[in-house]
Structures are given as structure tokens and as C-alpha cells.
Amino acid sequence: MECFGKKISFIPWGSSLEDIPDSDICFGHFEINSFYMNSFKTCEHGMESKNLLSKSPFVISGHFHKRDHREYKNGQIVYVGSP
Questions:
Q1: Can you give the pTM of this predicted structure?
Q2: Each residue's pLDDT tens digit in the chain (83 positions)?
Q3: Residue 41: helix, strand or coil by DSSP?
């Protein structure tokens, strides 16, 4: 999908890295290693940030309940969290 001149991808739960298209902004339901799952636990499995950022420089994800935002040299990842 294209919106405001940006290629945007919506990635369903359970997709492998190989199934994620290159895009400017990527929305998904990802498990990314080292991100906070909640206030007490971090993810110790799942995708690596560098691999996901090779597909898109801006990744927005749900799934984990704690908001988290990290910036890297080649992009950023945001977990929106839940109230």
C-alpha cells in the first residue's frame, strides 16, 4: 500500500522475516528480542532488531503490553503498548 508517498506494509502475526516486503513503514504484531514484554520481563526470543530494520527503517508493533521505543542508526522500532 502507498500513502503520502510512503510504502506501508501491514504484516500478519506469525509471518517470517522472508515474507516481509521492503517498505518505508511496517506495522506488525512482532516478537522482537530484547524488548520489554511487560514491566518485569523482556523477550528472549523472536526476531532480531537488525534483521527487521533491514526490511523497513520504521517498525511499529503491538503484541507486547509495555510501550517501548528504540532508535538505531538505520531506523527505529516502536511498541505501542496497551493501556
A1: 0.89
A2: 999 999 999 999 989 999 999 999 999 999 999 988 888 888 898 899 999 999 999 999 988 888 899 999 999 999 998 86
A3: coil
